[in-house]
Amino acid sequence: DGRVPDDVWTEFPRVCGTFGEREGWHPCQMPETLLARIIRVCSNPGDLVLDPFAGSGTTLVVAKKLSRDFFGTDISKAYVKNIDARLNATQSFADIVGERQGPWPKEHIQLLSAAYIEFSIPTDRLFRHQHLLLRFAQRFNLRLKHSGITQEYTPDEVWIHLERIRKSGKLGKIRVHAEESTKTAARDPVEYKK
Question: How far apart are CA 146 and CA 191, in angstroms?
Fold first, then answer.
């Protein structure tokens, strides 16, 4: 009847003026959950995400949260200034606004810690070398499968939970990892190189 649909995928609500996610300075802000799905499907950690019409900067913010390099442009100098401020306020590996961030089952966390000790590669090396993180995630998923667990996790999910466990001080120490502080900030995605 001439009504414009709210969403492409109905599970992603528009970012309305009353939403906490809304920046307030751009009229067409997209939800982080929608862009997270697109970025995850179309890229891997360390890949470059391009947004030639950056607007509110949500694509770039989500790319940063998902450990992708990013590049954006916009003709509005005011938007570019606001995007810069938004990116500076965004932490790498931060939660995607609107996504369920429920805790992993205890058994999965124990298996992740055990896999980390078995793999014996410090978190900073896992982060810098995409192939190592991929191999670690594969080994972890294999460990889950051997334990009768059908759930599989992406390298992004494995990395985020590994960092959470490390920051909580509950990650088992490996010899080369023993001196690393549990209070170290998450690394900047620009360091994530092949």
Answer: 33
